[in-house]
Amino acid sequence: MLKERLGIDEKDSKILNWFMKDPFLSQNEIAERLKLSQPSINARIQKLKTKGILNFDVGMSFNKTNLFLSRIDFTATDPNKVLDNLKKCTFFANGFIMSGKNNVSVFFINETMKKADEIINEHLRSNPLISDINVSFIVTAANDYLFKMDLEQATAEKCYKPNSCSICENVKTDKKIPHDHIEKQQTYKPSNYKRYNPSDDNYTSV
Length: 206
Fold this sequence. Notes:
Oligomer: single chain
CATH architecture of the largest domain: 2-Layer Sandwich
Radius of gyration: 21 Å
Structural class: alpha+beta
CATH superfamily of the largest domain: Lrp/AsnC effector binding domain/regulation of amino acid metabolism (RAM) domain
Distance between the termini: 45 Å
Number of helices: 8
Number of domains: 2
């Protein structure tokens, strides 16, 4: 069973569930619910943190920011090297190494789809280690998705200058061909794409 796999008991399970619903829940409140002392609850919480099962994280809500989250699946001959390079991008949200032909999946968060296209064209399509690229945009998340972003870097003027990705100092790509000869591809059709925003229950056309 899952609890045995994680090495937790019924009380630990309840603590985890309560924190996932309310991360600001106090130890005293948990102690009252479980009929245990506060020091006992603290010991359990510290144990769960040490095991990496309980983590408190801070980020921005995808469902509430109205930014654009792109998912790119592709085949990489050296997935670790590719991910190590791409995660230096200011707009990189997360990346995964997977089984199957498309063995890497990465997520980028952007203010505009135009910027997303520039990143994909300059840092993925031009990379000789990457092939068979498939791009999609996330419309909405069933459960809220928190992402981290260096806002100082993300709002820096240099990241929005024309062809800024081609001269990026963070992401280094040994390009197959010079960037000005890459056949630029548009991964979306603005008139057909809508970003769902649950906060106002309306679709935002792009």
